[in-house]
């Protein structure tokens, strides 16, 4: 088989990794339709669980993810996609990576380790 | 909040990344108990969905994952753990990473890109 196995699950988790830096940017999900669109367009298209529809990453912010290479795991139920993150930020909070909070054992608050690239209020304007 | 939010889901996906190389090694799941054990022991403990029990990574193969740092994402429903992968291989098929197969568009078979570190037949002997 050459690709993920959607027969086990309608939605599979997808890890987006920055090709250049190796930073893990985010985790989201794809259904088979989102996967097919991603292959066809060369831009990452997820399936939004909260909105129950295709989520063309960057459709609002412009921060699309260009596909560089795609990998699937030993169980064929998870994808790893190396991307070129346009705009430099994957996270809707304006950080380069969604994983911008590091757990600090024994502390009440996490440490913010990520770089804030944009101000969400400027990018996602009220309509 | 300082950590993942298990109130939204009993199981959350966990990305294990090699701290030294930046390679994404695998994706598995934790429930709250597995997460607590991981924090306590400093070794990654997942929850196996197929076996419905705690899965102390490396319990059979010896290839444990030492926790170096832990991050959680903007929705607090995914973890990223940077690890030191003992034995050099995370995948039960003997590869360094579970993502050892690269999709090759238009080809019937994927390209094997990973490095095989051990022979599974030697490590997981029949009991």
From TrEMBL, chains A, B:
Where would I find the Phosphoribosyl-AMP cyclohydrolase domain in this sequence?
26-100
Classification via HAMAP family: HisI
Task: Report the GO terms under cellular component.
Answer: cytoplasm
One Pfam family of this chain: PRA-CH
**Top-level taxon in the UniProt lineage:** Bacteria
Please name the pathway: Amino-acid biosynthesis; L-histidine biosynthesis; L-histidine from 5-phospho-alpha-D-ribose 1-diphosphate: step 2/9; Amino-acid biosynthesis; L-histidine biosynthesis; L-histidine from 5-phospho-alpha-D-ribose 1-diphosphate: step 3/9
Gene Ontology process terms (BP): L-histidine biosynthetic process
Q: What is its EC number?
A: 3.5.4.19
Localization recorded for this chain is: Cytoplasm
**SUPFAM superfamilies this protein is in?**
HisI-like (SSF141734)
An example molecular function term from Gene Ontology annotations: phosphoribosyl-AMP cyclohydrolase activity
Q: How is the cofactor bound?
A: Binds 1 Mg(2+) ion per subunit.
In terms of InterPro entries, this protein maps to: PRA-CH, PRib_AMP_CycHydrolase_dom, PRib_AMP_CycHydrolase_sf
Q: Which PANTHER family match?
A: HISTIDINE BIOSYNTHESIS BIFUNCTIONAL PROTEIN (PTHR42945), HISTIDINE BIOSYNTHESIS BIFUNCTIONAL PROTEIN HIS7 (PTHR42945:SF1)
Its keywords, alphabetically, are: Amino-acid biosynthesis, Cytoplasm, Histidine biosynthesis, Hydrolase, Magnesium, Metal-binding, Zinc
Q: Which cofactor does it need?
A: Mg(2+); Zn(2+)
Q: What is this protein called?
A: Phosphoribosyl-AMP cyclohydrolase
Q: What does this protein do?
A: Catalyzes the hydrolysis of the adenine ring of phosphoribosyl-AMP.
**Which positions are annotated as binding Zn(2+)?**
74, 91, 98
Q: What is the lineage of its organism?
A: Bacteria, Pseudomonadati, Planctomycetota, Planctomycetia, Pirellulales
Subunit structure comment from the entry: Homodimer.
**Chief localisation class:** cytoplasm
Sites where the protein binds Mg(2+): 73, 75, 77
Family to which this protein belongs: In the N-terminal section; belongs to the PRA-CH family.
Q: Which reaction does it catalyse?
A: 1-(5-phospho-beta-D-ribosyl)-ATP + H2O = 1-(5-phospho-beta-D-ribosyl)-5'-AMP + diphosphate + H(+); 1-(5-phospho-beta-D-ribosyl)-5'-AMP + H2O = 1-(5-phospho-beta-D-ribosyl)-5-[(5-phospho-beta-D-ribosylamino)methylideneamino]imidazole-4-carboxamide
């Amino acid at each position: 088989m050459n690709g993920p196995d959607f027969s086990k699950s309608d939605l599979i988790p997808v890890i987006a990794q920055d090709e250049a830096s190796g930073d893990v940017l985010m985790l989201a999900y794809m259904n088979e339709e989102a996967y097919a669109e991603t292959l066809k367009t060369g831009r990452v298209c997820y399936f939004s669980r909260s909105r129950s529809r295709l989520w063309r990453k960057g459709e609002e912010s412009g921060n699309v993810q260009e596909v560089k290479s795609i990998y699937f795991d030993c169980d064929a139920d998870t994808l790893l996609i190396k991307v070129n993150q346009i705009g430099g930020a994957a996270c809707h909070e304006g950080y380069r990576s969604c994983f911008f909070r590091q757990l600090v054992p024994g502390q009440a608050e996490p440490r913010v380790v990520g770089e804030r690239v944009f101000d969400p209020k400027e990018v996602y304007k009220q309509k």
